[in-house]
Amino acid sequence: xxxxxxLALAVAGCARGGAxxxxxxxxxxxxxxxxxxxxGANAGACPADMVYxxxxxxxxxxxxxxxxxRDERNxxxxxxxxxxxxxxxxxxxxxxxxxDRYEYPDRAGAHPASMVSWYEAxxxxxxxxxxxxxxxEWTAACEGPDHTPFPYGFxxxxxxxxxxxxxxxxxxxxxGRGPLLMYSRDAGVREAELARLDQSxxxxxxxxxxxxxxxYDMTGNVDEWVTSDRPPREQSKWSGLKGGGWGHVRSQCxxxxxxxxxxxxxxxxxxxxxxxxxxxxxxxPAAGTMPAPHVEPHxxxxxxxxxxxxxxxxxxxxxxxxxxx
Length: 325
Hints:
By secondary structure, the chain is an alpha+beta fold. The chain is 16% helix and 20% strand. A hairpin with a 4-residue loop joins strand 3 and strand 4. It is globular, with a radius of gyration of 19 Å.
């Protein structure tokens, strides 16, 4: 596969330029201004703990990847840099909604929830009068008003978000022959294993990992459940996972994992919530989308995990070539 690769992705945005990801302080200042503008436009359209997003969305875009890595472990291509131009292949659609500023429990400095299925994540959002985000809503919030492939620009930067950590392999009981310890019914065994594997950071602590709308940790940290608004593929049915965890995966705004069914739970799988914005038309899914089932409200993440004893992010990261950096 060549270094220059055209990727046709399901993406928001149309033909427009963009700045490189390494804009540093000026990019952060721009993000602050965009976030302030969004907050001002909110004017009661969203609850105080949520961000108002109103933008255009393009369901299909062509982007040119200029630096691609083949990751054999996960059987995926990881794009490290896109050309700062993109072409919307279909008419844009207006989109407006509310989204949690941070990963659940949506509080700065909190430990992001994990080990929840789609059903549990949706039920937990329902207890707050919210719901899981449509995949297109999640993407629009991540790409920001400039519709960039990463929340901060066109070039992947693992110093801006909690990504590219080296894997810690889960342990099994019975000398490696039994079930994974993270699923143990013994709370002490389970919690000790989850702490050993945990490479997340407190919500919002990566200040530069923020989209132009002021939404934090959308790529990396924990993978996030969404409700698919496109016809089902692979095992996902009406669900999907967006953003990637803290490991070496795609970690782009547009990427979605569709290889897990809605009952799947894992040590780096979490979520954030969305809701309809007051006065805005609710988002409608594409034709052929599999309807998600109704779930009764129930809080499946009532107790916040502690960072005490957690492994934390790697001191070294995967580099472009897969070696320690």
